[in-house]
């Protein structure tokens, strides 16, 4: 009888231990939490990498330390675009981010010329500049064409004038696209970007400067 009682006690103890072991399994959820934290860190690192992933960066500084920052991206492109009539073009998608670290709102106005222009480094290559109304965000940076739905945009806007107006509030940023559309390839690298000279805003395409707007920045000067 004693042996039977001892066996029953051992069996109950073993069963209890198994239940405790199975109850302890939810603790492995901590691994998922750790993975989530790692993903957040990766996103932060990705955003930090993006800060250094621009082709050009210009800083315009006020005497009180406030700044206006213009950052211009490298291109992304599927290269070929065929319009509804079957005509072939070459395109590239760029984006620019403007950060207003002054104490006043900034009115940004851009008007690209309706007509195309010839790129000096590529004779016979005529290019047009277009401004989609979509807002670029840092999360779109890894996407194809920076997340812009390029074909529908070009189908509707390739022959239209292109302009953009935005107010950038103090301590705020604005990011927007620029699309280049040309009759053939450049035959080398294509680099573009906005910059300021005095109060005049220029868009530079492979060293060709195109006057495209103005910003009142009389108190600002380019950092040397």
Question: Could you describe the 3D structure shown?
Answer:
With 224 residues, this protein is an alpha+beta fold. It contains three helices and 13 strands. The protein has helices at residues 2-23, 29-51, 150-157; strands at 56-61, 67-72, 76-82, 88-101, 106-112, 117-118, 126-130, 162-168, 172-182, 192-197, 200-205, 208-214, 221-222. The strands form three sheets. Strands 1, 2, 3, 4, 6, 7, 9 and 13 form an eight-stranded antiparallel β-sheet that branches. A three-stranded antiparallel β-sheet has the order 10-11-12, with no helix packed on it. The protein has a two-stranded antiparallel ribbon with strand order 5-8. β6 and β7 form a beta hairpin. The longest helix has 23 residues, at 29-51. The radius of gyration is 28 Å and the shape is globular. The termini are far apart. Residues 2-49 have low confidence and may be disordered.
Keywords for this entry:
224 residues; alpha+beta; 8-stranded antiparallel sheet; 3-stranded antiparallel sheet; 13 strands
What general outline do the C-alpha atoms trace?
globular
Distance between the termini: 96 Å
Mean pLDDT: 77
Q: What would you report as the Rg, rounded to the nearest angstrom?
A: 28 Å
Describe the protein's topology.
Elements lengths: L1 H22 L5 H23 L4 E6 L5 E6 L3 E7 L5 E14 L4 E7 L4 E2 L7 E5 L19 H8 L4 E7 L3 E11 L9 E6 L2 E6 L2 E7 L6 E2 L2
Antiparallel strand pairs: 1-2, 1-13, 2-4, 3-4, 4-9, 5-8, 6-7, 7-9, 10-11, 11-12
């Amino acid at each position: 009888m004693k042996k039977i009682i001892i066996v029953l006690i051992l069996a109950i103890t073993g069963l209890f231990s198994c239940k405790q072991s199975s109850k302890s399994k939810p603790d492995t959820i901590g691994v998922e939490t750790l993975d989530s934290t790692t993903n957040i860190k990766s996103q932060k690192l990705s955003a930090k990498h993006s800060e250094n992933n621009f082709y050009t960066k210009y800083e315009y500084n006020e005497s009180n330390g406030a700044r206006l920052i213009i950052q211009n991206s490298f291109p992304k492109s599927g290269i070929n675009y065929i319009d509804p009539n079957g005509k072939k073009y070459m395109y590239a998608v760029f984006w620019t981010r403007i950060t207003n670290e002054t104490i006043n709102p900034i009115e940004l106005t851009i008007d690209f010329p309706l007509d195309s222009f010839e790129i000096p480094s590529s004779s016979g290559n005529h290019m047009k500049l277009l401004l989609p109304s979509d807002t670029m965000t840092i999360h779109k940076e890894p996407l194809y064409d920076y997340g812009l739905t390029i074909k529908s945009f070009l189908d509707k806007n390739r022959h239209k004038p292109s302009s953009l107006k935005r107010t950038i509030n103090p301590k705020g940023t604005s990011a927007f696209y620029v699309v280049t559309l040309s009759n053939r390839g450049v035959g080398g690298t294509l680099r573009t970007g906005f910059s300021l000279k005095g109060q005049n805003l220029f868009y530079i395409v492979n060293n060709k400067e195109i006057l495209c707007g103005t910003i009142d920045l009389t108190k600002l000067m380019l950092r040397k």
